[in-house]
From TrEMBL:
The keyword Protease applies. InterPro entries: Peptidase_S8/S53_dom, Peptidase_S8/S53_dom_sf, Peptidase_S8_His-AS, Peptidase_S8_Ser-AS, Peptidase_S8_subtilisin-like, Peptidase_S8_subtilisin-rel. The active site is at 197 (charge relay system), 234 (charge relay system), 457 (charge relay system). SUPFAM superfamilies: Subtilisin-like. Residues 1-22 form the signal peptide. The keyword Hydrolase applies. Belongs to the peptidase S8 family. Residues 188-506 form the Peptidase S8/S53 domain. This is S8 family serine peptidase. It comes from Fontibacter flavus. Keywords: Hydrolase, Protease, Serine protease, Signal.
Amino acid sequence: MKHFKNPKFSLLILVFGLLVSACDNQLTEVDPINEAELKKQSTISKFNLTEISDYSNLRKGDFTGKYLVLSRNQNLNSNLMRSIENAGGEIVKQYPEIGVLLVTPRTDTFLEEAGKINGVESITPDLVWTYTQEPGLVSEDVTVSAENARRITAGGEAFNYRDAIFDGWQWAPKAINATDAWDAGYTGEGIRVAVLDGGFHSTHIDLAPNLDVASSASFVPGFAFNQDTGTFWHGTHVAGIVAASGFGVVGIAPKATLVGVKVLHNGSGAFSWILDGIIYAATPQNLGGGGAQVMNMSLGATIDYRNNWQDREFRDAFRELQKIYDRVTRFAFNNGVTVIASSGNGETNYDEERELFKFPAQNQHVLSISSTGPTGWVLGNTNFSDPAYYTDFGKSLVDFAAPGGTVGLAVVEGNFNPCTLIGTTRTTTTTCAIFDQVFSTVRGTSNGNYNWAQGTSMASPAAAGVVALMMQANGGNLTPAQVKTRLMQSSTDLGKPGQDEIYGHGFVNAAKAVGINN
């Protein structure tokens, strides 16, 4: 049985790389370990961990004050729970689906005593780390005035994507032939897509028609699912890519049902919150869950154990975290939920950098998505499937590719010239490279704000939208294994023939995914 009590562990447990979701794609450095301070802490608390006091200001390495107890088998029984309580632990939450308990220690001897229990495999601190980072907004918000908005209802009128106010501003749907799928009547209607992320602006005019507010939930203490910080709101941008209703912009599956599951606050979250979110989303509605058929996680953490593998506690912690994540993604898979995650924005080849591991993109039964984008779309370029300069890649990481946008025209090619985008009803002028990003919903200052962002965080929901279209075309009955097979059959084989390190099994194609040959 493993438990982790080394003073370095609270900061070492993961020397996290940041899976950045937008413009800034550098890996975040972990603050140096202050051994003197840690020694001081060890005289105060046996756990050498400081409990979170302010959930609105989360930091890497924050401790929720709880431990994740992993059972040796995947069952929780009364004897095990009684033993945990006798060892001085208060069981806060049970995860019988994956054989995990969330426990608050009530005695200084809890770790030592719990370590003697035969049915316990490991005890791991429930820590906070950064999963996403909101991009700096690269342009002013584009606001739809409320006085210009027609009344929106969940039932809505017949869908016509050409009526969108910003028609002509979105290159991504056309790049994957989603418009052909819409023309054929496929909109994702009847398919439930859970988005595990930060806050969701529930009254946004493009999200409200499709958002199942009653099923949406938050697992961040003290915050509702429709709360976050700033004006971007990562979860709102991601949700719009999946299923914006077509008032201002059009999501890839514009009539799919969105279930907003808040597991992050300002891009950070505790390990237990992610577990809560996955289990909730993958649990059928009649059992009190979100009832998702598709799950999108535009989030992740990179474990870099290059300089830490000699530390036994780090090595054990990494393995135990991997087991817990595998159990929960396997639970979703077994419940018929297709799980999709962003591959990351570190410009890294995971086939070469084998000391890296990406949670949850590399966990069992997760489809990991890399990012593509054009350079100079407004200038007439249509290279939509070109790899984005920032995307992580590698056969060991990537399953498929999708449009996530790129400002490579400026960052890589140095072109900061202005361009004018002429849409069907709206025109705007800004730096040409801005338009090569993905345009979607944001929190802003009203119920009708939109902006651009780039990242694999934007590519993942595009793929999730394609899966929703595919599932609608097949009566909503596809298993995750069938979804992967059909994506492999329908995606465009780019790069090296067959599976390759950039595109995985291919660049998603919405029209072919629903059975249209184009």
